[in-house]
Each structure stands twice: as C-alpha cells, then as structure tokens.
Amino acid sequence: MVPYDFLAGRLKMNHQPGQLEIECNAAGAGFVVASTEYCVTSFKCGGFALGISTNHILFDGLSFKIFLENLASQAFDDKPLSIIPCNDRRLLAARSPPQVTFPHPELLKLQPPIGEEEEENPPMFDTKQEDLVFRIFTLTPNDINHLKAKANAGETNSTIKITGFNVVTAHVWRCKALSRNVKNNRDRESMVLYAVDIRSRLRPPLPASYCGNAVLSAYASAKCWELEDEPFSKVVGMVAEGSARMSDEYVRSAVDWGEVYKGCPNGEVLISSWWRLGFDEVVYPWGKPRYSCPVVCDMGRISYCCFLKLVGLVAMG
C-alpha cells in the first residue's frame, strides 16, 4: 500500500477552497467478505468473484488497471511493482487564476446538500436499497460493421472518424433519446456524454502511469427530431466532433470550470468504453479473469452505459 497510501485515507471537505480533498490519515481500506446460499454464485470449478469499489477521485480506468497489475505482482512472492504510479496530482491542477475559456454545457453547477459539508466521517459503505436495472445487449462484429456501413452510406465529410466506438455511441444515444415517453419529446434537447482519456491530449502529455482521474466527458447535443430524422451519419459526426473538441485548452478550461463551480456531469446518458482497459488481461497467480464488468451504479438522472470487450457487449444501468 506504500505507493497507494491515499487508498487508506478518507475524503474530507476543505472548507477554505470549498472542495473535497484526500486526507492520507491511514484510516485503512474497507474489506468485506460475503457469502450466499444461492447457487448462481457457486462456481463448481473452484473459481470466485472479486469485486472492488473505488471512487473516481482515486482512479480512472487506466490507473486502476495499473493498480490491479501492481496488486497481482505482489502476489507473486513480492515481486517489484509492474509500473511505478505517478501520484503527482498537481499535473492536473487548475490554473491560477482559473480561466474558463469555453462554454461547458456538459457540466452542471451543484451545491452540496445542507449539512452534508459538515459530515466528517461519512459511512464507508452505503447499504440503502436502490431501484436499479442492469441489462446486457450483445453486438456482434457484424452488427458493428453494419452500423459503420450505415454511417458511411450517408457520409460526405471524409474527415469524420467512423469508428466502432463512434457508431455504437451514436446508436445508443439515439435509442435512449427517442425512447423517452414525455410530452413534446421531438423538440427536447438530448445530450450524450462519453468518457475521454485526456493523458495524450494535454501539452505536455501526462505520463502514461499517471494515477488519478484523467478522464473528462466529451459531449454531443441535438434535438430529438434531429436524431430521428437526420441521416445516421450526421449523428455519428456529432459524436466524432465531441471527441475532437477535447484539445489541451478545452481540457484546461474544463478543469478550471470544476475549480470555480464544483459541478458534475450533465447529460442523459454517460457512455464509457472498457474495450481497451484490459482488466481481463491482468495475470494473477491463478491466471487471468474469465470475465470483467462493472456493476450497476446509481448516477441519478444519468443512465450509464459501458462497452465491454467480449463481442461488443453493451451493458446499461
């Protein structure tokens, strides 16, 4: 735990700047062992399920994968760490003074609930019951190629990237937006958010081993009638433009926005790709995981959609 001492700390409100900070107080990491009588979780092969819950303040997907690699390396007779994490959070600090140079409709200004800012020792695990839904949809390579062909059929702008991620994101966005059973839905503005790794987009780039949250939400926005009536290629183009928008200056502006307003993502659906994170490629003493996926999480107004690696699985919560 020495290179990851912050994991044993606690989030604490620093009232002077009005923001949460990680207090490295060595309070300890939470560990829970659970058992059940249900046979659906009984693996006759001797395998087991391992679940880990962290806050995005601590890790994004890439830095968590590095953590798992380092964790696995310590199980091999105390071998050296696979990758030394870069824990310098100052590399993503806001500028002084903050300079918000772009509009950021993908972010929502929030104030903490009254009294919450005074809570010094919040519960480590929240056990309240939640009405959450988890669904898995399988997209085969042929399905994804069909979406690419559909996007190419109406595309006249050769600079737009028609990738697997862009076409699936456009498809999920359109389905989610048009499924809303609300009055005047066609005239409603719909926004999709999708996670973008900003390590290589900064100047200079962040180290590949940067440990922390180096992910921001790109966005695309349109009226529902546009999503329904316009060619699929145009919807894909909106998604591609949102990713291309994430330049060094835009990222710095978003970070400074967060310093000023202390907000959160603002959209209808948040999409994250686990295709290349490689959680299922970590080699433990007993071998690689057979399957890796997120669990259902409560994100309030926003539906969460995760693209998994196995034949294009799309998990929605």
TrEMBL record:
It comes from the Eukaryota. InterPro entries: CAT-like_dom_sf, Plant_Fungal_Acyltransferase. Belongs to the plant acyltransferase family. This is Uncharacterized protein.
